[in-house]
């Protein structure tokens, strides 16, 4: 009898450990980790309230006065939290109109890239723009960061939430053909809005991005090469690759350089 009781106790303990492990794995399924103290100090948290507490999207300082993010993050009332990592952060209201990439001579179709100008230069060090002759290729790893949810529900179903710390995660560049096929078959309306844009795909086992991560910079060798745009599956995490805007696409790169360039001082201006 005592032996039976001992076996029952051990069985319960094993079940408890197994359930605990499953829950822990579920919490970690998105696969990120808190960014290092010296990493991603150029990351910007975009918010819709003056305190900067709400999470709208991410962004990256690419100069002392310009933030690069995703166009679908646009709101009429926006605030940028500078120095949010490692903190404490400074909240700045975006006053000037956002600059969104639009095609020329094609009914001005918009693409998912947006530049936001700060009222005055910041002392936060920006991320360097890409060396497009050395951009990452399929199979190489890039890094993404954001404050989006770090947990999923049953069967990896996405749930709402945010992280208290900036999370960094590594992804591998993959071919976009599968994601294009998935979108074309399952969400043709969304695909038709995106197919004319230049985006690249990334994925990693047990790693995925979440709502709130949009606009965050995709970095390779300490330079920004992309802006996170969308996930391949809006309902379940870690099932499809995600996509980011490829800022080495020549029209994008030239638009960025032209927009953020400082006005040239003329000799007759005094």
TrEMBL record:
It comes from Anabas testudineus. Residues 29-261 form the Peptidase S1 domain. InterPro entries: Peptidase_S1_PA (IPR009003), Peptidase_S1_PA_chymotrypsin (IPR043504), Peptidase_S1A (IPR001314), Trypsin_dom (IPR001254), TRYPSIN_HIS (IPR018114). It comes from the Eukaryota. SUPFAM superfamilies: Trypsin-like serine proteases (SSF50494). Keywords: Disulfide bond, Signal. This is Peptidase S1 domain-containing protein. Residues 1-20 form the signal peptide. PROSITE patterns: TRYPSIN_DOM (PS50240), TRYPSIN_HIS (PS00134). GO terms for molecular function: serine-type endopeptidase activity. GO terms for biological process: proteolysis.
